[in-house]
Amino acid sequence: MTLLKSFAKLRFTLLQMEKEIGLGEISAAESAVICAAALIVDDRGRVELASLMAQEPLAVISRSTFFRAIKSLGERQLLVKESDSKVSDYILKA
After folding, report:
1. What pTM does this model have?
2. How confident is the model at residue 43 (pLDDT cuts 50, 70, 90)?
3. Deepest in the core among 54, 63, 70, 82, taking most CB within 10 A?
4. Which residues contact 36 (CB under 8 A, 6 or more apart)?
5. Dihedral sign computed on CA atoms, order 18, 19, 22, 25
């Protein structure tokens, strides 16, 4: 099997998994943000904005795209701003 064919199979499998967990309709930026959040979420489901912004995979996303993704994920109830927090913490609902 060629390396390209292996990559294609892996990519297809990942797309299927995204659909199965309800992430099939989100943008690439939103997907990157939700994946980064999943890697740093604490035991209570909280994600600190500063920690999220510091994640390496998100370095290629512009600041405005990052915040549009955060807003969109909030509207979809996947990453919701914690209401009683004085700092920018979010709750990962995905």
Report:
1. 0.84
2. very high
3. 70
4. 52, 55, 57, 58
5. positive
